[in-house]
């Protein structure tokens, strides 16, 4: 994918992230939310899905790791949105950084670089994020598809009473994330109505 195309899709994700954050709190810019903390906590949760315990047999749950990486992207985009820099500039900067991955010796070490930047500098290290993508086999197109899907699911959750506790996260014995992946697998991410189609798929699957 060309840097221009990547920047265009990142700008779409920035727009969606701003809308999502505004849905959660209309004045989210002024709340000083700890996005960096959300990143390193997600990193720790991701390691459990990847497997790091040498004293027991573990097999990486690659799809779940990818979903966790996309969750981190939500927080990373939120850090980069500062209320002053245009989305066009932010998207071009991120596109450039994602083209230059920082790599540790293996996936857990690269993930620790991402977590370390969040803990010590309260920043989103997009280079280390790109390194994690590369080592887990997550392409930019997959990331975009999964981001739009997860962002749409987050908006769906809010509309169905997530903050008030009314939302049902498990449907027919499966979590909503699993239903989301089913929907994403059967839709065309190149469709101009992609996000709308994901939302419609969730509406159809959600118990009335």
From TrEMBL:
Gene3D superfamilies noted in UniProt: Type II deoxyuridine triphosphatase
Name this polypeptide is given: dUTP diphosphatase
InterPro entries given in the database record: dUTPase/dCTP_pyrophosphatase (IPR014871)
Recorded superkingdom: Bacteria
SUPFAM superfamilies attached to this UniProt entry: all-alpha NTP pyrophosphatases
CDD domains: NTP-PPase_dUTPase
């Amino acid at each position: 994918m060309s840097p221009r195309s990547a920047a265009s899709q990142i700008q779409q994700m920035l727009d969606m992230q701003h809308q999502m954050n505004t849905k959660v709190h209309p004045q989210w810019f002024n709340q000083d939310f700890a996005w960096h903390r959300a990143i390193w906590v997600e990193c720790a949760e991701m390691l459990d899905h990847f497997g790091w315990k040498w004293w027991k047999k573990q097999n990486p749950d690659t799809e779940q790791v990818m979903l966790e990486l996309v969750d981190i992207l939500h927080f990373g985009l939120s850090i980069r949105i500062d209320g002053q820099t245009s989305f066009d500039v932010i998207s071009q900067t991120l596109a450039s950084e994602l083209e230059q991955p920082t790599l540790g010796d293996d996936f857990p070490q690269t993930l620790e670089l991402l977590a370390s930047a969040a803990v010590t500098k309260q920043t989103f290290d997009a280079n280390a994020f790109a390194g994690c993508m590369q080592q887990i086999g997550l392409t930019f197109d997959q990331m975009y598809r999964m981001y739009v899907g997860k962002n749409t699911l987050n908006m769906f959750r809010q509309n169905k009473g997530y903050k008030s506790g009314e939302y049902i996260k498990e449907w027919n014995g499966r979590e909503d994330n699993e239903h989301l992946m089913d929907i994403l697998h059967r839709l065309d991410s190149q469709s101009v109505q992609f996000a709308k189609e994901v939302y419609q798929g969730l509406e159809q699957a959600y118990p009335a």
